[in-house]
Write a structure and sequence with these properties.
10 helices, Beta Polymerase, domain 2, alpha+beta, about 200 residues, Arc Repressor Mutant, subunit A
């Protein structure tokens, strides 16, 4: 599933772009504004808005010589539309809940890469960075089970594989010194899930 733009795999591109704009704000928008925010042509967007108004999903109001549009949040479909538009945030919430219940708590956990940036695709892995605490071996039964279950759950929730980058707390010093590309990516894009902040974790002095 494309977690960043879930509508686009389920609806035509213009429809999904229009719905994402309307679901993301309660402010009335003109057709021109919707087209600009959706990055689609105004005639195409206007056809979609007219159809959504016809089905009652969108409210149309007169504003001078123009019309404005808002998502009809009383509509039976509105909740589903908002949930689809916010699937990426829902994924982060589920990950926080799951990792928060681990028997062996991580020193740190975060999502990084394309899903964290919001530019992933249906083929993207859900990249998760996890730091194992001191005194916990890589093969510790509880630790291993937690990672395996997390991987299984991510696949079940999204249809995407989890790309888990695991590091021991002891090995962090090597990362801080060498700064491999993945560290730069984590510094700039990580969505924190549990444990220490990225800034605290990767502090060099």
């Amino acid at each position: 599933m494309d977690v960043s733009r879930p509508f686009e795999r389920m609806l035509p591109a213009v429809d999904s772009a229009v719905l994402i704009v309307l679901a993301g704000s309660s402010k009335p928008r003109t057709g021109r504004e919707v087209a600009r925010l959706a990055e689609r042509s105004q005639p195409a967007v206007q056809r979609i808005l007219d159809r959504l108004v016809e089905h009652g999903v969108v409210h149309r109001s007169v504003a001078g010589r123009s019309h404005t549009y808002t998502l009809n949040r009383a509509h039976l479909a509105a909740g589903a539309i908002e949930e689809l538009a916010n699937l990426r945030l829902a994924l982060f919430a589920r990950l926080r809940e799951e990792i928060g219940g681990w028997v062996v708590a991580p020193v740190h956990a975060s999502v990084f890469g394309s899903v964290a940036r919001g530019d992933g695709t249906a083929e993207s892995d859900i990249d998760i960075f996890v730091v194992r605490p001191k005194g916990t071996s890589e093969d510790h039964p509880d630790w291993r089970r937690q990672l395996d279950e997390l991987s299984d759950h991510v696949l079940a929730w999204t249809g995407n594989h989890a790309g888990i980058a695991e590091l021991s707390e002891q090995d962090l010093a090597l990362w801080r010194g060498n700064e491999p590309p993945v560290v730069t990516e984590i510094r700039s894009d990580a969505v924190e899930l549990a444990g220490k902040s990225v800034r605290e974790l990767l502090r060099t002095s």
